[in-house]
Amino acid sequence: MSVESKKPREACCSKLKLFLASLAFVYFAKAFGGAYMKSSITQIERRFDIPSSLIGVIDGSFEMGNLLVIAFVSYFGAKLHRPRLIGIGCVIMAAGSFLIALPHLLQGPYKYETSVSHNKDVNSTESILPCLSNHSMTEADDTPDLETKTACEKAAGSSMWIYVFLGNMLRGIGETPVMPLGVSYLDDFSREENTPFYLACIHTVGILGPMFGFMLGSYLAKIYVDIGSVDLDSITINYKDSRWVGAWWLGFIVTGTLILLSSIPFWFLPKTLPKQGQEQSESKSKSTELATVAEQENFLPEENQEQEEKEKPVTFQELAKDFIPSLKRLFRNSIFSLMILTYLVAVNGFIGMITFKPKYLEQIYGQSASKAIFLIGILNLPAVALGIITGGFVLKRFKLGVIGAARVSISASVGSFCLLAIQVFIRCENAEVAGLTVSYQGAPQVSYNPQTLLSQCNMGCSCSMKHWDPVCAYNGMTYTSPCLAGCQTSTGTGKEMVFHNCTCIGEMMTPGMNTSAVLGQCPRKSDCDRIFKIYMALSVVGSFISACGGTPGYIVLLRSIQQDLKSLALGMQTLIVRTLGGIPPPIYFGALIDRTCLKWGTKQCGGRGACRLYDADAFRMTFMGLITGLYFLANMLWGGLYIKIVKRQKKLALRNQAKENGQEGNGAVNGHANISIAKNKEDEERTGEESTI
């Protein structure tokens, strides 16, 4: 081969590698932003004083954005300039991130609830007689007047969360073209044997995004939300407190800037590339005229080749007219339909888990929000990255076909499910909070009735039962406020405030012992740390095993689709899975988790805010039980899918053998074979995708 003929091929290979690197960077950037959003869920919930069900709606708005445009982007985008559409999507994603951060600039300083503040200065802590001074706090239990309600509209729980909702929706709209158009573009112009490895590389680089996203979320969760605008010495809470809000808004500025930068390379990439490894054709006639010719590969059924030549749309009207027939052809593919259902169930469990796992680690194992986010980012996500690259390596090393890929995927799914089922039974005891999880005498008793917060030891204080301002006694028990602990005096200011002569603490102590309490909730018992390490070990191993099946499962999907329907299929998969697997789970998971709340916070106007304390056992059984049930159903569907793939493969082998026998036999046998094939013509058309497996 001449040097001149090699140069164009080397140039196109370098452009393919540039696209691969650019797509990997976008996967990193969008995953970075998405993971940071997940890590900020708790901070946003506290900042706007909203329940978990509403935070689930906000989280699901990303998928709502996808729903608006995914079908059209996937179908029409495949016929247009795919790299530039990806670049446009990145710009929209960046705009959404900046919009999410906007409420911080429009709102005033964050005012957390406290039972020891009396004046209107931000986060003041002047009370020196907690019990006696709280007579005025009983007003908070009454219905607020109109003026107070009006003030509440401008407080933390106002409608400012709508900006976060809309910004997250914009992120979803912008992310739409990245996966279907990026993967189809890469698969169209790379060698078939290289595609699994390329996909594994992209997803592995992409998984680094969540790692950095969660680490950024962990770091910013320790920085106070109003950093630079308030006196931090006057703040009476720390980052371990359930009322603490970190600098959540700052992370969205960082992620938005990174996503904006990732869009730049796509403006300079070509619309199409020659197929990797193919000889350059001397006559380019029609292939240069239509960009979509590059999408037609060897996997098309022979009977559809002539149809493809006849149906090359050149106008928007013709593209639109061809959309419904293409959709019908796609969903007649039974393997595709069953795989979508399997993904749908599994994604429901995964989205619910990843959305509320930081909250789960906080409430069940007593971890701070910052540490919970950090551990997910530094332990679980690297395990997922290693699992994804391992799955891709296994496919490439052993050159597995569709059945082999399905075996790897279902084995990984079953293995991770077994470890998940064990995690349901790993637990710590409820935090000891007087009147909520234990009685004032220390006996275990979970109560959803606020009246149990009152006891003989604090009756004379006329305390508010709505506020959450926990103090930790030296006996290891937490009280929901200094007043409800019966504390008579206090010393110190800010985080160093100590409450003394607490009558309720005295009931639990022998005479002469310390009856003081300090701000904050008491830490869990020492054995909880050991149990938590066991849980995290199982969680990390399960994450690795589950991720090993990711790339093989994706290859099963790709190889089960006709070539001309690939972009549409990936788009419809994204549409269906994200619509029914991305929007509902945060909402119904959040609503069910809200039902396990023992103590709700209180807004400035006296309304119900975010939950401060959950019933740990009820939370665990609700959260882990629901996830385990969904993954069990997904495994059952995987089993049915595998059986169907094997049957179809055998059917296709028999059909090919019949054709070969028909060609070798005499005229009579050949004619008989042709009649048999003709009788099955309608079935072949319905399942034309079989030849792609």
Describe it:
- 61% of the residues lie in helices and 4% in strands.
- It has 693 residues and is mainly α.
- It has a domain at 3-111 and 155-275 and 330-428 and 528-641: MFS general substrate transporter like domains (Growth Hormone, Chain: A).
- A five-stranded antiparallel sheet has the order 2-1-5-4-3, with no helix packed on it.
- Strand 1 (471-473) and strand 2 form a beta hairpin.
- Helix 4 packs antiparallel against helix 7 (161-175) and helix 8 (178-189) runs antiparallel to helix 20 (566-582).
- The longest helix has 49 residues, at 616-664.
- The radius of gyration is 30 Å and the shape is elongated.
- The chain starts with a helix and ends in a 7-residue tail after the last helix.
Summarize the structure.
The chain is mainly alpha-helical and 693 residues long. The chain has helices at 3-39, 41-47, 52-77, 82-106, 130-133, 146-153, 161-175, 178-189, 195-221, 248-262, 285-289, 305-310, 316-331, 334-365, 369-398, 402-423, 503-508, 527-548, 550-559, 566-582, 584-594, 616-664, 667-679, 681-686, and strands at residues 471-473, 478-479, 489-491, 498-500, 517-519, 597-602, 608-614.
